């Protein structure tokens, strides 16, 4: 008769080998060699006369070569069997920044130009930095915020735009006939470009689908807009927390409305035109 405890396999359960996962020895994978405790990142995997080996490099730069044997390594504290990688990774396209431009690996920030970009508020500045930050550092363009544009004429006069010192300004809700439109007309010139988007607030420049909502609700004029948005979306009436949630949903230019994308690109081109 077969033992009910052992089943078809007469080996006691506590003596049976437990299967362990096989993990490709990809470059930079950090593992610990089980016998010696040597911990390092995979540098290479190669075939030798004795079989396949893996070379690990620890944080001090020390190299050790180990055979690829079953159950020979620990990954995050778990026993694994390292195996050869499937093969060289396929060639990849050049990396891209969040704005969609070609990334420049290892590029250092350029010394800031005299030209500047001004935006209305802190949220605007944070959104521009999140998407265009890498590009702006390479171009040496600093973004500052104004806390509204009522005092823009005085700010522009104090900036003293001119040759090699351009000023670009991004304005919320820049529509014909509005107060913002009249202020913009007063300061626009050869060295000053004011552009705007049609949104009540920069929040609306983030696509609703990226935030996970069906659309931005309508809020009556007499109600504070951001608080009204929170109420209608069922969020806590906490505008800093709401903005943090919205900003976290933005990973690239694809999460923004085209009406904002074009205006920011226009400003970057303006303040960097003709400058090496």
Can you walk me through this structure?
This protein has helices at 122-139, 152-159, 179-187, 208-211, 225-233, 239-248, 258-272; strands at residues 22-24, 30-33, 39-48, 51-57, 63-67, 73-75, 78-83, 116-119, 142-145, 167-171, 192-196. 26% of the residues lie in helices and 20% in strands. The strands form two sheets. It has a seven-stranded mixed beta sheet, with no helix packed on it. Strands 9-8-10-11 form a four-stranded parallel beta sheet, sandwiched between helices. The longest helix is centred in the middle third of the chain and has 18 residues, at 122-139.
Our estimate of the beta-strand percent is 15-25%
Tell me the overall shape.
Answer: elongated
Radius of gyration, in angstroms, nearest whole number: 29 Å
The secondary structure category is: alpha/beta
What is the end-to-end distance? 89 Å
Order of helices and strands: EEEEEEEEHEHEHEHHHH
Strand segment count? 11
Major sheet characteristics: 7 strands, mixed
- Helix % is 25-40%
Could you tell me the mean pLDDT?
84
With strands numbered from the N-terminus, the spatial order across the biggest sheet is 1-7-6-2-3-4-5
């Amino acid at each position: 008769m077969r033992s009910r405890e052992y089943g078809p396999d007469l080996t006691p359960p506590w003596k049976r080998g437990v299967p362990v996962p096989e993990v490709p020895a990809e470059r930079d994978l950090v593992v610990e060699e089980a016998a010696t405790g040597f911990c390092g990142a995979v540098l290479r995997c190669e075939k030798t006369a004795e079989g396949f080996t893996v070379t690990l490099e620890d944080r001090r730069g020390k190299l050790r070569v180990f055979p690829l044997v079953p159950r020979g390594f620990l990954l995050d504290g778990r026993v694994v069997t390292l195996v050869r990688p499937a093969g060289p990774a396929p060639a990849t396209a050049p990396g891209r920044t969040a704005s969609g431009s070609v990334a420049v690996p290892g590029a250092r920030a350029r010394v800031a130009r005299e030209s500047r970009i001004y935006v209305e508020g802190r949220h605007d500045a944070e959104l521009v930095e999140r998407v265009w930050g890498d590009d702006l550092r390479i171009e040496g363009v600093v973004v500052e915020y104004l806390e509204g544009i009522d005092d823009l004429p005085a700010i522009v006069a104090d900036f003293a735009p001119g040759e090699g010192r351009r000023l670009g300004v991004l304005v919320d809700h820049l529509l014909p006939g509005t107060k913002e439109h009249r202020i913009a007309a007063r300061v626009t010139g050869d060295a000053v470009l004011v552009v705007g988007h049609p949104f009540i607030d920069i929040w609306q420049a983030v696509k609703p689908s990226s935030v996970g909502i069906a659309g931005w609700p309508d809020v009556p004029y007499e109600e504070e807009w951001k608080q009204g948005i929170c109420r209608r979306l069922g969020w806590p009436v906490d505008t800093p927390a709401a903005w943090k949630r919205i900003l976290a949903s933005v990973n690239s230019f694809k999460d923004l409305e085209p009406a904002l994308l074009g205006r920011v690109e226009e400003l970057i081109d303006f303040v960097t035109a003709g400058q090496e």
